[in-house]
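Sorry to interrupt, but I need a hand with the structure work. Go ahead and set the record down below:
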Amino acid sequence: MNCHPPSVRYLVAPILSVITWFAIHGVAFADRTITTNTSYTNNQNINGTLTINAAGNPTLTLNSGASLSNLNYLIVGRTQKGQLLVNTNVTLKSTGDALLGQEVNSTGVMTVTGAGATWTNAETVYSGYAGNGTLNILNGATASSASGVLGWYPQGVGTVNVNGVGSQWVIANDIRVADEGAGVLNVQNGGKVTSPPASSATTPAPASLR
C-alpha cells in the first residue's frame, strides 16, 4: 500500500461529488472536536472526523462501556495538543486515517492500555504526520491498521511504544519508520509488532529504528 496521499487535483473532483451527493440526500456531517478534558462511558455517534485539539492539551478518555460509532478520521493534536486514552475493555474502530500530531509544532498522544482494550483502524496510522506524535500500546492492549508511518513530513517526529506481554500492533501492509521525518519504534517486555516479513518486529528488549 502506498501511504503517500494522491495529488490534490485528483482529490478535488471526487470530494465535490461526494459532498454534492450528501447535500442532495440530506445527510448531515457531524464531526466532533474535543477541546477540554472529556470522559465517555457510553456510545457516542461521531458520524465523521474526531479531532482532539487545544492549547491546554485536552484528553479524551474512553472508559469501560464507551464506544464511538461511525468514526472516520481520527486527529489527535491538529494544530496544538491533544491526547486520547483507550482503557481496559474498550473497543475503538475508525475507518479513515489516524493522524497523531498533524501540523508542524502540534503534539498528539494516543494510548491504548489494558487487557481488552482494542483499536482497529482501517487505514494508515500516522504517528508524527508533520508534528510530534506518540502511540502507546500497553499492558496487553491490541491495535491494528492497514499501514503505519512514523515521521511522515520532514518536520514530523513519530514514536510508537508497544510494551508488555500481550501488547500487539498488527499491520496488514507496510510500516515506515522515519519516512521523511524522524521515527522510533520501541517494542519491549514481550510486546509484538507484526507486518509483512520485511518489517516484522518482535523483541523482549528495547528496539529503536530510525
Q: What stands out?
A: Residues 78 and 106 are 6 Å apart (CA to CA). The chain has one domain: 30-202. DSSP finds one helix and 18 strands in the chain. The radius of gyration is 17 Å.
